[in-house]
Write a structure and sequence with these properties.
heterodimer, A: about 625 residues, alpha+beta, FAD/NAD(P)-binding domain, D-Amino Acid Oxidase, Chain A, domain 2, 4 domains, six-stranded mixed beta sheet, 19 helices, B: about 290 residues, alpha/beta, Rossmann fold, ten-stranded mixed beta sheet, about 25% helix, globular
């Protein structure tokens, strides 16, 4: 493909991905681009006589598509808008109010619980008399400070990002282009000189269609700001090129699957209510419910990479979680409005890549900003963008180039000296214990939180591919070897994922669909996620070594796929990928049970730049 | 204008009358089109103090009305073929939402935006909308009706009265009007032939001596163009100024009373199949409808 002649365009700054981090960057930067008299403060280097040419390319079909509900202290975000009450500016936002943390009991007896969790079960069941009374659950009488979000905001990140985007575009100082996936950085040696947009008018394998081929354009710029999230093609290509700093890793992940529902009139939860749950549907799976204004709520679960079962379908688990009596009493009679999923890079600051290089800089979640102690990422991602903007403004004012040295002296220095970094360092080892199970993980998080990071639980970190158990190990004692083999054979014949069949065999009840809150995976994809993809792009999920897939028994990529976009193919063949159904959550990348032979830190699933996905901005 | 009905198999260009021989100049193609909610969204009518509306309307993702989008792509294609032509997109909608919409639409084809800040809900009166759009067209600097083709959708995904384009033509004094257009072919002398959809899967083939004319498009035949960053950059030179000077208008405010609004009952059972014949799918759908 390197022989393809590509058109080239010049900009001063090009941003990849428009999420909270880029929003923070552009919000701060644009405020410095005009003098008091309204004339440009800085002249474009690439278009002399013009103001700075700043472009932002976003994969999703519109800005704000495909992100999720959140409760955030919003300390940094609020600091960017000192004169505004954000709950009045951002659609559907509300001040965080009543907070609850509930431990859910397994009222069905279907989950897998180790002895540590059974001990925790017993403690909570025994202690219910002094906890909040609620069905099949115990509410913690006290929430540790590091988990509280008091004074914060409950909001849809989609609405937040849409609001910021509109503000930015109305300034006329920046152009944000949705529906434009960026496939890779453009290198000159180790220097990044721009980005390459994804080819259009190609078949699923990427071969040009002579009638419609439009080679992805190269956008050259002195500075490339990479904020394309944890599974973004540009960030991952940079990681491939430069590796990670010594000692850092990106082993810890989770997929968050969420729905926005219209609550029934009988629901008494007030807007701003924040509920977090643990203990069910599996000990490793956490849940949340945030109540928006106008009787709507965002709710969902997180399935972490240390949930070692290959049968890790998030959607089925979400449906079981929703039906837990503690949750169901609030939502029964409601209606699902929206749905989506997203991968979260949960290694936090441990997953930090090289933040800068000649011509590029990393911000946001993909740059390791998630605080894994406070479970907070949006505010931190925003702030990394703000810190970068301050550094860039410094360099623009001094008319100095965007070299690694200059970016280190401005952006990285600021980031290292900021409260952001201090908090991330305290949180660094908060989740280490989960590597050895739920009980140790809870102990570790508590210890880190209560000692401000001074004391932690230690454990050995492994990439998910080295953790995932076999089917036999996972269902030992619950499904006989014969039944398991028969179920696997039948699913392969029917070209169906394993999860629903195996979960039922393991004791989970079948989901009784009501078409309102509980619906088939396909229905939630289209009714909730409104998923679609423009034609003319190549498959963005491929398998590095198909021969490895042919002998893979777990096929975790199929089981984890949030959208049933990866499904069993012909028997003995690799899974089939349907790009029109993919919601770009990226869970397949880190859930693959097969390490890449040439780099065991990576897996056999390749995730590139693709177009389309969710079409809902109220998640 | 002359017309002849054709079957779909022989919808070739028919020229019935001898046209006056003249040299074609560049066209001014004005496309009328605005946003509608993304068709994939769940729409729920609600009652507002003034007119019916949609729940969370300000938050609903929008797309360019698919019918108008076809006409925009056809306009751009035609402009490319006729040297010296220019495409305008006249868009009536809430300014903030238009702005967001333009970041997608502007990447598709070259055009100059004329923005009008007002309601784009499905609950506006077609005549009111037509008057507003016609006034905006009349106000385009350098407008030359002798070169004017007014394009738009033959209907709207959110406002399916199907008469807005004709009313715009009436306001502009344009009598040559074509509805349900799928094709236009220009001749060197400025005349053109048009295929309009009519009953029975047939086309009405017409020829027209030349501009001005109104063409309310069906789907045309062009695919959605890919996103082209260079086109987007070029369009932005006009989009931002057009949005900044968008004139506010009071369309859809109190001129019409709606007694009731509702969406049809829905029954949904999605199953994705890619290797089943159309006959089998049709039979299955029939069974499903029968319940």
């Amino acid at each position: 493909m390197s022989a393809i002649e590509r058109m080239k365009m010049e900009a001063d700054i090009v941003c990849v991905g428009f999420g909270p981090a880029t929003a923070g960057f552009l919000t701060t930067l644009t405020r410095a681009l005009l003098k008091e008299d309204g004339t440009p403060a800085f002249e474009s280097k690439v278009m002399p006589g013009m103001p700075l040419q700043i472009m932002c390319y976003e994969r999703a079909d519109d800005i704000g598509f495909g992100v999720s509900g959140v409760v955030t202290k919003a300390t940094f975000i609020k600091a960017s808008f000192p004169d505004k009450d954000l709950t009045k500016e951002i659609p559907n936002a509300v001040a965080a109010g009543d907070e609850k943390v509930a431990y859910l009991f397994d009222y069905l007896g279907a989950s897998q619980r180790d002895p540590g969790t059974m001990f925790v079960d017993a403690v909570f069941k025994g202690g219910r008399f002094f906890m909040g009374k609620c069905p099949e659950a115990a509410e913690l009488p006290w929430i540790p400070p590091f988990l509280r979000k008091e004074g914060g905001i409950v909001m849809s990140i989609g609405s937040f990002v849409s609001w910021i985007g509109a503000e930015l575009m109305s300034s006329g100082l920046v152009q944000i282009w949705p529906g434009t996936p960026v496939s890779e950085p453009v290198f000159e040696g180790d220097k990044v000189v721009g980005v390459r947009l994804a080819d259009q008018g190609v078949d699923l394998q990427g071969n040009p269609d002579p009638a419609n081929f439009m080679p992805g354009m190269d956008i050259h710029a002195p500075l490339v700001v990479v904020g394309d999230g944890p599974v973004g093609a540009v960030g991952r290509t940079l990681d491939d090129h430069f590796g990670l700093p010594e000692g850092n890793h990106q082993h810890d992940w989770a997929v968050g699957m969420k729905a926005v529902i219209e609550l029934p009139e009988s629901c008494t939860l007030k807007p701003g209510t924040v509920i977090h749950t643990l203990g069910y549907p599996e000990q490793e799976i956490f849940g949340f419910m945030y109540v928006y204004p106008d009787r709507t709520a965002s709710l969902g679960i997180f399935v972490p990479s240390w949930f070692d079962s290959p049968v890790r379908t998030t959607y089925t688990y979400l449906q079981h979680w929703m039906q837990h009596p503690y949750i169901w009493r609030h939502i029964e009679g409601g209606r699902l409005r929206s749905w989506g999923a997203k991968s979260l890079q949960e290694s936090g600051v441990r997953g930090e890549p090289y933040l800068t290089g000649d011509g590029y800089v990393r911000i946001g979640e993909g740059s390791g900003t998630t605080n894994v102690l406070t479970n907070s990422g949006v505010d931190e991602a925003w702030h990394s963008g703000v810190l970068l903007a301050e550094g860039v403004i410094d360099l623009l004012q001094r008319d100095e180039p965007f070299t690694k040295a200059n970016l280190d002296a401005t952006y990285v220095k600021r980031r290292r000296e900021d409260k952001l970094n201090a908090d991330l360092q305290k949180a660094k080892r908060a989740r280490d214990g989960f590597q050895d199970g739920f009980f140790k993980g809870m102990m570790g998080t508590g210890m880190t939180g209560m000692t401000n990071g001074a004391m932690n639980v230690s454990s050995q970190s492994r990439p998910p591919s080295q953790r995932i158990k076999t089917l036999l190990e996972t269902f030992a004692g619950r499904i006989s070897e014969q039944d398991l083999a028969a179920a696997v054979a039948q699913c392969a014949k029917d070209k169906q994922p394993l999860h629903d069949t195996l979960m039922v065999l393991a004791g989970w009840p079948e989901i009784k669909m009501d078409g309102e809150l509980l619906m088939s995976h396909q229905d939630v994809l289209f009714k909730g996620g409104k998923v679609q993809a423009a034609g003319g792009f190549a498959n963005h999920v491929t398998f590095a070594h198909p021969e490895i897939c042919r002998t893979c028994k777990e096929r975790t990529c199929i089981e984890i796929c949030s959208a049933q976009a990866i499904m069993p193919g012909e028997e003995g063949e690799p899974p089939e990928f349907d790009r029109e159904k993919c919601i770009h959550c990226g869970a397949c990348v880190w859930s693959c049970s097969k390490a890449l032979p040439e780099d065991p830190e990576k897996t056999n699933v390749l995730f590139g730049a693709g177009s389309g996905g969710l079409h809902s901005n109220e998640n | 204008m002359c017309s002849l009905a054709l079957g779909p198999a022989d919808c070739t260009q028919m020229k019935i009358n001898q046209m006056e021989n003249k040299t074609m100049e560049g066209l001014q193609i004005v496309v009328c089109g605005t946003l509608v909610p993304d068709p994939l969204q769940t729409l729920e009518p609600v009652t507002t103090p003034t007119v019916p509306g949609l729940k969370n309307e300000t938050m609903l993702p929008s797309v360019l009305d698919p019918w108008a989008a076809h006409s925009l792509y056809e306009a751009a294609n035609l402009a490319k073929k006729v040297p010296g032509s220019k495409v305008y997109l006249v868009s009536l909608g809430p300014k903030a939402k238009l702005q967001q919409l333009m970041m997608t639409v502007a990447q598709k084809v070259p055009f100059e935006l004329v923005a009008i800040d007002g309601s784009a809900s499905g609950f506006t009166d077609a005549m009111e909308v037509a008057k507003t759009l016609a006034a905006a067209i009349e106000a385009i600097p350098g407008l030359d009706k002798a070169r004017l083709l007014v394009f738009g959708g033959c209907a709207s995904a959110s406002r399916d009265a199907g008469v807005t384009m004709q009313l715009i033509g009436e306001q502009l004094g344009i009598t040559d009007q074509f509805v349900g257009v799928d094709e236009i072919r220009m001749s060197d002398d400025g005349s053109f032939s048009v295929l309009e959809r009519i009953e029975g899967g047939q086309y009405l083939a017409s020829t027209c001596a030349g501009a001005p004319a109104v063409l309310a498009w069906a789907t045309g035949s062009l695919p959605e163009p890919p996103n082209n960053p260079q086109v987007g950059m070029a369009n932005m030179r006009f989009v931002i100024p057009a949005l900044q000077k968008a004139r506010p208008v009071a369309v859809g405010v109190g001129s019409i009373n709606f007694e009731k609004s509702e969406v049809p009952a829905q029954k949904r059972a999605t199953r994705i199949v890619k290797d089943v014949s159309a006959d089998v799918i049709a039979a299955e759908i029939v069974e499903w409808i029968k319940g």
